[in-house]
Design brief:
Order of helices and strands: HEEEHHHHEEHHHHEEHE
Helix content: 40-55%
Largest sheet: 3 strands, antiparallel
Shape: globular
Structural class: alpha+beta
Radius of gyration: 20 Å
CATH topology of the largest domain: Sufe protein. Chain: A
Length: 286
């Protein structure tokens, strides 16, 4: 019997926000019945499209999967999408006063479903992980390299067994355990037995998939733009990416500011063009 906290048991026996939403703004689905776990998460924004007004989930899984999904929906209600996108599986486990390490993959599943739902709202894409440059490591549980890397970095994993607990990778036939160890060696800075191939040059922004464009733009906004705006009580939200056109919404003191157009051109557009290496990018404030 797993050693579950009182919060886990409460959210398992009395799950919050179970069901579906009519005409949701974003929907994300991860897992598969063949793997033993599956989760579908949907959210609806408020009238101003600023904050999550409602969120529902449906899951097929164990007590930890149900509790993690229930907790996640409670956590993100009232958040902006930018705030919700920062919620990690570690945050979910902390909210539940901890999860057994062998069940941490359930919290990872919730985080990935939320990421997929946000990407669905922003890009229209129904998948995020199926990208050519994201190798499939575990065929038994359909776990990609990016998922393993993310779990290792967020949760400071150091062993193959921990990776299996958090992602399920390597938990069936075990043929991928060598590949998992190689990823761990690379992430932990250990010397590899064989020299690693030179990393491929990043693809031009125009050639990225819609989901990757959103991720790339969000990374620049978070690192290069938001800190400057927040110094003056402002903020910025990514609304959509359509080819080379990036739609944003200014928030806080930046909303309605007479200098907003100068900020858009002199800061936002300039930083995006420099960081993403594409002078054709245009920023539109809506």
């Amino acid at each position: 019997m797993w050693d579950y906290s009182e919060k886990v048991l409460d959210h398992f026996h009395h799950p919050r926000n179970v069901g579906t939403i009519e005409n949701p703004d974003g929907v994300g689905q991860v897992g598969a019945l063949a793997c033993g776990d599956a989760l579908k998460l949907a959210f609806k924004l408020d009238e101003k499209k600023e904050r999550i007004a409602d969120v529902k989930f449906q899951t097929f899984g164990c007590a930890s999967a149900i509790a993690s999904s229930s907790a996640l929906t409670e956590m993100i209600k009232g958040m902006t999408l930018d705030e919700a996108s920062k919620v990690t599986n570690a945050d979910i486990a902390k909210y539940l006063d901890g999860l057994p390490e062998q069940k941490m993959h359930c919290s990872v599943m919730g985080m990935e479903a939320l990421e997929a739902a946000i990407a669905n709202y922003r890009t229209g894409d129904t998948t995020v992980r199926e990208l050519k440059d994201d190798p499939l490591v575990c065929t038994c549980f359909n776990v990609h390299e990016s998922e393993i890397v993310e779990a290792v970095r967020i949760n400071h994993l150091t062993t193959v067994e921990q990776v299996t607990n958090y992602t399920k990778a390597g938990g069936a036939c075990g043929k991928c355990r060598g590949a998992i160890q190689a990823i761990l060696d690379r992430e932990l800075g250990k010397a590899s037995a064989a020299p690693a191939p030179a990393p491929a040059a990043p693809a031009p922004f125009a050639e990225l998939s819609p989901a990757k464009k959103v991720m790339a733009v969000e990374k620049v906004l978070e690192a290069e733009v938001r800190p400057a705006l927040r110094l003056d009580g402002g903020d910025i939200e990514l609304v959509d990416v359509q080819g080379a056109r990036i739609q944003v919404r200014f928030l806080g003191h930046c909303a309605g500011c007479m200098a907003a157009n100068l900020t858009k051109n002199g800061l936002v557009e300039k930083k995006l063009r420099e960081a993403l290496g594409d002078d054709a990018l245009e920023v539109e404030a809506i």
